[in-house]
Design a protein that fits this description.
Keywords: Membrane, Transmembrane, Transmembrane helix. By secondary structure, this protein is mainly alpha-helical. The protein has helices at about 5-20, 25-30, 30-45, 55-60, 65-105. The chain is about 75% helix and about 0% strand.
Length: about 110
């Protein structure tokens, strides 16, 4: 087997191993996500850009509802990101394994 094919197989094995051993971002940084979520929930309703009205104005100054909507939106966004990243990692892992198996088939 040529040196190039050996290096390609080693590279694919390394990429697969790295993807399988990647820690879950949400488990690793759960405290940071909670702190960021609290900050976003507290700051977003009061934030105003130039010549614009803040979010609380659109909720008719109903503070609990506004903060609840912002917090719920943050949780939904985090859940969507978790689902998307998980699906992407599985697809990438499947593609790399297929590539490795295909290169392994013609090893010789």
């Amino acid at each position: 087997m040529s040196d190039l094919k050996e290096r390609r197989l080693k590279s694919l094995d390394y990429q697969i191993q790295e993807l399988e051993n990647r820690p879950n971002y949400y488990k690793k940084y759960w405290l940071r996500l909670i702190v960021i979520g609290i900050l976003v929930t507290l700051i977003a309703p009061e934030y105003t850009a130039k010549n614009a009205k803040n979010l609380i104005y659109y909720f008719d100054y109903n503070y609990p509802l506004c903060y609840s909507v912002v917090a719920f939106s943050y949780v939904v966004i985090c859940a969507i990101m978790l689902l998307t990243f998980t699906i992407q990692d599985k697809k990438k892992l499947k593609k790399l394994k297929e590539k490795r198996d295909f290169n392994d088939l013609f090893r010789g």
